[in-house]
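Slide 14.
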Amino acid sequence: MLKTLRSKLIIFMALVLLLTASAVVYLTQRDVGREVMTIEQNNVENILDGVFLNLQGVYRNVIADRITSIEQSRERLQRESGFVLAALALYAHREALAPTHTLAATELGHWLAQLDMGTTSFFIADQQGLVVFDSEQQLTHKHLDDIKDIRGQPLSGVINTPESSFAQFAVFSPDPTDDIQRLAFIQRVPERHWILGASVDISHIKARENARLAQVVRELRRQFAQARIADTGSLFIFNRDYEFVIPPANTHLPEALLVDLTTLTQGVQRDRPQQGSVVVNGEYLVSYTRYFQSLGWFLGAIIPATELQTPAQELVRRQSVLIAGIFILSVIAAIGFAQLILRPLGLLAIEAKQLAQQDLTTDTYTPKRIETLTRHYTDEVGALAAAFLFMQVELKNNVRRLLETTAAKERYQSELNVAREIQMSFLPQELPIADSHRECALYAVLEPAREVGGDLYDFFMLDDTRLCFTIGDVSDKGMPAALYMAITRTLIQSYTARDSDPARIIRLVNDSLSKDNPKSMFVTLILGILDLNTGQICYANAGHNPPIILNHNDRCEFIEGISGPVVGALEGMDYHNLYMTLTPGDSLFLYTDGVTEATNAHCELFSEERLVYAITHAHSTAPEPLIQHIRSRLREFVVDAPQSDDITMLMIAYHGQATAPEAP
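Slide 15: predicted structure.
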């Protein structure tokens, strides 16, 4: 069986295909299936993390509000107690002048009862701590030793004295049977044997916190009802008493699980979700639990294990069926391929005899059957046929190749010229703004180093008052850079239509370009938005040359600041916005490094210093004349040296709302 070439080829290809299919099926089942299941598990953990962070943020706000309210109440009590003590000090001065009358505690109480301090109440206790007056009529005839604060400490232990280094406060309930809590500031009255207490009701703070948490629970209940975890998975929250704060939205879960929640809290950690498993009524369930310690809540998720495994199993099954089909088709193709290899051998023997009788220097003879062999076979059969046709075919091919090369070069040059025209037509030429609404003037120019280039600029109106502008420089030149430039410009316009934050737009463009970038190209970029009413510019600089601002007093300076790295090099990079404000008469000049790095015959750079000099010594500050002036200075500098890089310049002159633009 293995004596023929056909059998050897068929068996060899079948073995290779079988080994390949087996390896692919094994790796798919081992790695891809496991990865799909991991993705499903990560999705559940991410949902729990999101709920945890939401609760954490709400609780921090609640605590911050509580602290603020308590601090305000403390300051109020100290202030109003100080007012009462100041009044007593004045009365003490009066007693010193007229000792015939001494203020009694009952008189002070009568005065305090008539005193309007809003929600603040006062009480007076004698030297032994017995309350002799209470404006709320709840503490009268009670002893301060018998009134406990929320820590169980008597109020007599938190009395402030002039020697105290810090103020003490107490929270207590006048009536232990209700939920009213009061914040008290208690101090001794100098030169008298009294104890003065001021208190304010703080029960509303707790009520406000409870209302806030109730609102969060309602919102989470709505989100849990809409959340989808696998097919029948559920989210829920229960407390330390194993009572549901938010019950599962799906009612398919076994009642046994809903009753016995203790199995979900075993080994739960506060900083990350805890994965576990339970078996209820013979069904294997995967659980995820996370503990929110501040509220004593457990965040839980329950998913049937089969629902986590089904996507991976379905993927493996489809892959196995596909690979089996490919294997069968490949074996059939191998049999046909072997047959095709053996058939031309007899034809080659016949053509070999006729070939010696033909004149190969003319076109009268065309060995079509031998040419067919050379086109269809690359093995020994094809090599043998090619040896007979070598001289004739090579001569004809050389002439044909010369003609084809000449035509291809002309076609390529023509296509480059068309590409240049198309690229230039993409770039805007004038600002799309009404003549009656000319808050600024704008002019830009792009000179590619080759037929097409990688620099870009663009400007367009986001609405009636906001101008979006951009300038960039691709890392390469020629056709690849031109295509990269077109993609970058398209992405900017696409994302700008949905967002007006320059940093976010550049982050989206960077992520899109970095996803599929085999040549590791990148682009430096400035993207900004000018408010025509205020002159404020919000922009982001992704590794581009610093812009230049020309003030109305002809002062020229660079604007330093980088928002982030170049665009297209790596996904997930962060960018931040930079800000500047143009006053009427100011101008903003943007450029690429083809301007400052233009090189003359002596390998000298045009440099930033020469650029600033050219700007400050221009005869006009209008955008078009100034840019044309810089182009003239560049030509004078480089003389006959070839242009080494694309040159792009863009200038915005801000006139404000009341000033007409300067004529070019």
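Speaker note: Confidence is low (pLDDT under 50) at residues 658-664.
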